[in-house]
Write a structure and sequence with these properties.
- Helices cover 30% and strands 26% of the residues.
- It has 430 residues and is α/β, with parallel strands linked by helices.
- Strands 22-23-1-24 form a four-stranded mixed sheet.
- The site of uridine-diphosphate-2(N-acetylglucosaminyl) butyric acid (EPU) has 24 residues, from helix 1, helix 5, helix 6 and helix 12.
Length: 430
């Protein structure tokens, strides 16, 4: 297994290209199941999760081609992928594949909508919380599917096709909104999805569906109105920039001081993160090219916040903010309201000298003068990158083990950071 070695203390200066959003690219790839024609996606990040989903889609019969790069084209600009689900070869999504990545469960909606049946493994355990799928199943039932759970599998049937419905979620779920949206575009009649998640990644998927012939109103709001169509066609779509990757590098720059341009970051998607960075004493200026982040000598100020669905502060940036606040001038209070177990990074940050106390869903982060490098373990994707942030400001050497978690969601992280002056290297495992 590879490791990442970081020697802390260097300021970051330069430009970091923000990749396409993992959490938009994954559902967009799944959308390809809805049409026999070709869906061409550009700016697809090169990530382990994308490769894993590719295997799952190929298992359903999706033919996937990756277009090459022209000479001189920026190596960090993502892949162009052509996905063609001319025929669905298999409506089974087996445990061996689904258990490796939760988002693959989202194939349920499109398979049901296109084929009238699907058998998809329940996703199983997760490091950040219990993460049930009851809301996904509720949405499919509302759309007329019959659902049974048998031997760890969801068996869903809609012999005469799905029918439009009024779906009202009692809490906000990104995945359940994707599922309801992807299924209802091919249902007969009208669907209303109330209390829909309004994360930019859902808007991106909805915009792609519209290019494919879907009829959707209320995109980017919490009420989606869908008029079902009988078929969708191919389209070309560019994946939006990754707001979580941008937020993460903003915190790296804030942690080390210095001056970094996050090229192509969409400041509009990052309003809550920018607000918190500014409260913390980190400057964030939207520019024509992206988002400029700098902190020149000013001390870090503690903050108090709750994670919230969009447009609130994202749970996917909570661990990174906590790492930043380990060096603030006082005590920060961070409450995690989305996932019940998303504090696995706390014990690892403590190994670097952080002073954090947990009270249920709330972490009190008492800023310290100094962090010191140590061997640490990555536990999940966002937790592991919080260790990178702390290590960049720690004295001495930090060795991060189990970096496959990082590779799931950060494209060429060590190259992007070292180009800005960080002392970071990947040590290949045996
Ligand atoms: N929930 C239910 N029942 C359901 C579905 C969700 O109770 O049927 C609960 C969850 O347990 C959680 C809350 O609802 O407490 C919100 O979960 P949500 O469904 O919104 O999460 P998700 O769709 O599984 C996506 C992202 C996560 C991100 C969350 C929240 C992708 C591929 N995953 O997950 O991203 O944290 O939304 O914004 O888009 C990550 O990238 O590291 C990551 C974990």
């Amino acid at each position: 297994m590879d490791k990442i070695r970081i020697r802390g203390g260097n300021r970051l200066n330069g430009t970091i290209q923000i990749s396409g959003a993992k959490n938009a690219a994954l559902p967009l790839m799944i959308v390809s199941l809805l049409t026999p024609e070709t869906l061409t996606l550009s700016n697809v990040p090169r990530l382990a999760d994308v490769r894993q989903l590719q295997r799952i889609l190929q298992n359903h019969g999706v033919d996937i081609m990756v277009a090459g790069k022209r000479p001189g084209q920026n190596g960090m600009m993502g892949d162009v992928k052509q996905l063609s689900a001319k025929t669905i070869a298999d409506t089974l999504a087996p445990y061996e594949l689904v258990s490796k990545m939760r988002a693959s469960f989202w194939v349920l909606g499109p398979l049901l909508a296109r084929c009238g049946e699907a058998k998809v493994s329940l996703p199983g355990g997760c490091a950040i919380g219990t993460r049930p799928v009851d809301m996904h199943l509720h949405a499919m039932e509302k759309l007329g599917a019959e659902i049974e759970i048998e031997a760890g599998y969801v068996i869903a049937k809609a012999k005469h096709g799905l029918k439009g419905a009024h779906i009202k979620f009692d809490k906000v779920s990104v995945g359940a909104t994707h599922a309801a949206l992807m299924a209802s575009v091919l249902a007969q009649g009208d669907t209303i999805i109330e209390n829909a998640a309004s994360e930019p990644e859902i808007g991106d998927v909805a915009e792609c569906l519209v290019k494919m012939g879907a009829q959707i109103e209320g995109i980017h709001t919490s009420t989606l109105r869908i008029r079902g169509v009988t078929s969708l066609h191919g389209a070309e779509h560019r994946v939006i920039p990754d707001r979580i990757e941008a937020g993460t590098y903003a915190m790296c720059a804030g942690m080390t001081g210095g001056d970094v341009l996050l090229k192509d970051a969409n400041a509009g998607h990052l309003a809550a993160v920018i607000d918190v960075l500014r409260q913390a004493g980190v400057s964030a200026e939207p520019t024509n090219e992206g988002l400029k982040i700098y902190r020149n000598g000013q001390a870090l100020t503690p903050v108090k916040l709750d994670t919230q669905p969009y447009p609130g502060f994202p749970t996917d940036c909570q661990a990174q903010l906590m790492a930043l606040m380990t060096k603030a001038n006082g005590t920060s209070v961070i409450r995690e309201t989305i996932f019940e177990n998303r504090f696995m990074h706390v014990q690892e940050l403590a190994r670097l000298g952080a002073d954090i106390t947990l009270h249920g869903d709330t972490a009190e982060v008492h800023g310290v003068k100094k962090l010191t490098g140590a061997p640490v373990m990555a536990t999940d994707l966002r937790a592991s990158v919080s260790l990178v942030i702390a290590a960049l400001a720690a004295e001495g050497e930090t060795m991060i083990n189990r970096v496959y978690h990082l590779d799931r969601g950060f494209e060429t992280l060590e190259d992007k950071l070292s180009a800005c002056g960080a002392d970071i290297a990947r040590i290949a495992g045996n």
